[in-house]
Amino acid sequence: MDEQEKISQEQTAPEQAPEAPQPGGAKRSGSKGAIALIILVLLAAAAVVVTKVVIPNNRYAIAEKALTDGDYAEAIAAFEDLGGFRDSADRAAQARDAQVEAERAAAYDEAAGLLDAGDLEGALAAFQALEDYSDSPAQAERAQEMIDQRNADAYDEAEELFAVGEYEKAIAAFTALGDYADSADRAEEARDAQAEAENARAYGEAAALFAAGDYVAAAEAYQALGDYADSAQRVPMALYSAATALADSGHSAAAAIGYYALGDYADAQERSMKLWARAAGQTVDVSGDMAAAVLAKGAQAQAVGADTYNYETGASPVMAVALGDGWMACLHEDGTVRVTGGEGGDIDAVRWTDVKALSAAEYLLALKTDGTAMTAGQSTPEEPAPDVSGWTDVVAIAADSAYALGLKVDGTVVTAGVGAPDVSEWADIIAIDVGPDYALALTADGTALTVSVTPGLEAPDVSGWTDIVAVAAGNGFALGLKSDGTVITAGELAPDVSGWTDVAAVAAGDFALGVKTDGTAVAAGEDATDVSGWTDIVLD
């Protein structure tokens, strides 16, 4: 029985009464203590072995497996945790090298994949990043050669597009090449060529419009071309031709505005003034139930109605007439004015010169050749005539009993006197007239405008008029002369003029008067005066 079994039996044996000490007992007790000490030493040694040898070996084996499996991060961490155990430091370094090698191999494979996929720039950057790994320099050189060849091919294609005039595509192709060769410069040159081609095409279209007689459209087309070729010079040329076409077709006032807008181009201002003088000329007039006309090529002026006035001209023919309150004013071609009639003595017009147009109410209104205006007489015995002393650049006039209108060369209208209408919004006006309760205007586009001057009374509605070349304001109605020689009316008191044809001029008062192209006259309305005796009325 060994010592351990003895100890066990002694621990499990039933307690017995103490025995008397036996000889030799002290020696057995000492043996037991030695044995226990030995056991403790052995246990401690075993613990050291497990801690210092067994566990590190196990962890070392795990790290080795991670390294073998390619789990480099785990292997590095495991070897580093082992510190100085065996060759852990070396193995950690080897794991790092293996990790770098694996990463570079993966990067190389990715670069190769980019190259195969045609992402040449991506492949080039990837191989360059690998520096001297494997054959990365050679692969980078290969990628660069492929890029150069691709760019060269694309450059050639861009040049072909440029050569055949496909400028938009050429611009896109050169732009896509970035800083390759002179691609940026060629892209800019393609843009310039494109602009030149577009301008040349637009210039040709403008020239075609001009040749077709569409001068306004041609002017707009040339204007849009800016300073291309001689486009800037052709703009006023086209507008001048447009004004000339208007003048040739009898639209004197519209042509006058067109010439005036050209400023000092050629003889535009001279033509404008001459045309305004013609447009402002009034060879017929109606006031109340009286009518007046210039007859026999200007040798005579006559007024018929309640009274009859006959005026025989002198050396200078009469070019316009205006009926006032009991008198008739006659304008001679030399710019002088004479008044005839029983009640015209207080109209001191006989000393006027340089006059080019007349209009009359209770007073006489005159337009001078310099674009200013003047009056003679009074609106009423108590009221002076409207003050027109500040008017300038006026080309046509219209007189009402209390106010006056002046058409300016730029197509706007000025007013003077008591109760004048607000015409500040009127523009592009080419003719004006006044009735007892409203003002009437003709616009350059052949439409008409009216404005009431008497509260509670509506002006004739002319909003639907088109293709109008002349207007006249009557008592309760308006007349519009159309370009085909017919006449339309508006207003509650409008007379029937539906049968009128070949009319060249109109005037209105208490009735409507039309001058036909053969120099005869027609009249309509309940109070119409007999004008059948007129056969040689002067037309503009």
**Main beta sheet, described?**
4 strands, antiparallel
Count the E strands. Answer: 22
User: Which parts are unreliable, with pLDDT below 50 for 5 consecutive residues or more?
Assistant: 3-8, 10-17
- Note the beta-strand portion: 15-25%
The number of helical elements comes to 12
- Which word captures the global form? elongated
**Helix share of residues?**
40-55%
Radius of gyration: 57 Å
Termini gap: 162 Å
Helix vs. strand class: alpha+beta
Write the layout of secondary structure elements.
Blueprint: H1 3-12, H2 25-68, H3 72-81, H4 88-116, H5 120-129, H6 136-163, H7 167-176, H8 183-211, H9 215-224, H10 231-248, H11 252-260, H12 268-280, E1 284-287, E2 290-295, E3 300-304, E4 309-312, E5 318-323, E6 328-332, E7 337-340, E8 355-360, E9 364-368, E10 373-376, E11 394-399, E12 403-408, E13 413-417, E14 429-434, E15 438-443, E16 448-452, E17 468-473, E18 478-482, E19 487-490, E20 503-508, E21 512-516, E22 521-524
Helix pairs in contact: 2-3, 3-4, 4-5, 5-6, 6-7, 7-8, 8-9, 9-10, 10-11, 11-12
Characteristics:
540 residues, alpha+beta, 4-stranded antiparallel sheet, 3-stranded antiparallel sheet, 12 helices, elongated
Q: What would you say this structure looks like, in words?
A:
- The protein has 540 residues and is α+β, with helices and mostly antiparallel strands.
- 41% of the residues lie in helices and 21% in strands.
- The chain is built from 12 helices and 22 strands.
- The strands form 7 sheets. The chain has a 4-stranded antiparallel sheet with strand order 1-2-3-4, with no helix packed on it. Strands 5-6-7 form a 3-stranded antiparallel sheet, with no helix packed on it.
- The protein is elongated.
- Mean pLDDT is 88; it is low at 3-8 and 10-17.
